[in-house]
């Protein structure tokens, strides 16, 4: 930055102050320790503070003492700003330290000028704009370098956390010390309550769950993310309260596409398995609509997930005849069958749930038997029906293969 040469009288004051540099730095340090509580913590060591203060004094004295200086070297304040960012010092406290110490330096300038006489003091006041311009340059250099360093740290931290999430969801650290170290770095417990989210990104370059992190923090839920083309994954640490309903509500508020959630699991090295649940939950949602679904961790669900082709063949064998009937009738019979199984075969309880007469339930179940491989008093037939209903509940698309093109179009638009 170009500046007019400072008055030679001010240069004389600067030279005189330079002989008391150590005393001035000591005085500044004591002022900082007295006024700013943060600097009494071990985050910024005493030696590091002294180094930063010496940078600031050198900067000011150098630029005041050299009348022919045409540019300002900001390497000193830039070094201080970057170092404070790396140390984790809050920027407001860093700037407050500088303002306090600069005011102290100005008082030292005035005191030194008084030693030279009234004319020198007047010359100093005349050159005050130069002094305050240097203060502004120094402050901006600290701020810019601090923010630049913090931005770099954030990028590095995001990359590191993303790599750790990748290791978890890819199953690269199935057990042992590696997973413990991942947990420590992410700020997660090794054993706790966790959920995996998979969110599709319907629009390129836009986050599919924008704003969710702040909502999760408000719920005291930790999160670690990994972004990939077309979707984003997150591992959530729920803490001891496990507010799953609140978490799913927050996810739903932010979702712009389909989002799958795994069941709650309790050990971090089970993340890869949980990811599969979340992926299946996402795939089971209708395409083209925003929504959230969480699968339950049941033996039947796991069986369905592990082999979709086998499941499809099993559904065809159990429900093949039923899936070919008109959609309205099929939907009614399947809904009745689900309620009947939940009611442990009680027509009366099923009727209460469906708001119909028990005889209506019995009629529908007899109709259902016509499409099954045997009567419903056979435990094997009941087991097959339960498996098939769980399969089509998890993968609604299994119903599509028996729909007409018109039925599929109507289902997609509903």
List keywords for this structure.
414 residues, alpha+beta, Globin-like, Alpha-Beta Plaits, Arc Repressor Mutant, subunit A, 3 domains, 18 helices, 6 strands, 62% helix, 8% strand, rod-shaped, disordered N terminus, disordered C terminus
Mean pLDDT over the full residue set:
81
Structurally, how many domains make up the residues? 3
Relative strand content:
5-15%
Rg value? 35 Å
What is the top-level CATH class of the largest domain?
Mainly Alpha
Shape: rod-shaped
Question: What structural class do helix, strand and pairing data support?
Answer: alpha+beta
Beginning-to-end CA distance, first to last residue: 66 Å
Helix percent band: 55-70%
Largest sheet features: 6 strands, mixed
Written overview of the protein:
This protein has 414 residues and is an alpha+beta fold. The relative contact order is 0.07. 62% of the residues lie in helices and 8% in strands. The N terminus and C terminus are likely disordered. It folds into three domains: 146 residues, Orthogonal Bundle (Globin-like), CATH 1.10.490; 121 residues, Reverse transcriptase/Diguanylate cyclase domain (Alpha-Beta Plaits); 109 residues, Orthogonal Bundle (Arc Repressor Mutant, subunit A), CATH 1.10.10. α1 runs antiparallel to α3 and α5 runs antiparallel to α7. β2 and β3 form a beta hairpin.
Short overview:
The chain is an alpha+beta fold.
